[in-house]
Design goal:
5-stranded mixed beta sheet, alpha+beta
Amino acid sequence: MKICTYEEKHFKDVEALWEEVFPDDPPWNAASIALPEKSNQQPELIIVAVDDDHVIRSIIAGYDGHRGWLYALAVLNVHRKKGVGTKLVKEAEQRLKKLGCQKINLQVRSANEGGISFYARLGFAVEDRVSMGKQTISPS
C-alpha cells in the first residue's frame, strides 16, 4: 500500500469509495463535482492510499492561508481498523504544516460516533462552535 497525491486515473476508484462511505451525501459533495474543483486548487491536498492499483482510502485537505481543514476521509469498509485512516490524516497534517498551517479544523456529523472517537484519538477536540452553512447554488 502506498500513500500518494490523487491523479485523474484514480477518479473511478475514489467515486466508488465515496459512494460506499458517504451514501447519503448531498449531490454537491459528489466526486464528479468535488474532485475536479479541488484539483484546480491545491491538488496536492487530495491524498489517496492505493493497494494493488486500487484506491482504498482518501482524504481531502484545504488551507486558506490561516486555517486548515480536513474533508472526506473515506475508508472502504473492508479496510477499516487497520491504521491507514490514521496515516492519511497524519499525511494531510504534514502537508498542511508545510504550507504554514497552525490549526486544523474538521466537521463530523453528530450521529457519527465512530468518526468522533477516531478523531479524538488523533488529538482533535470538540470545540464550542456552531457550524453554519449556506448554499449559494441550488442543487440540481
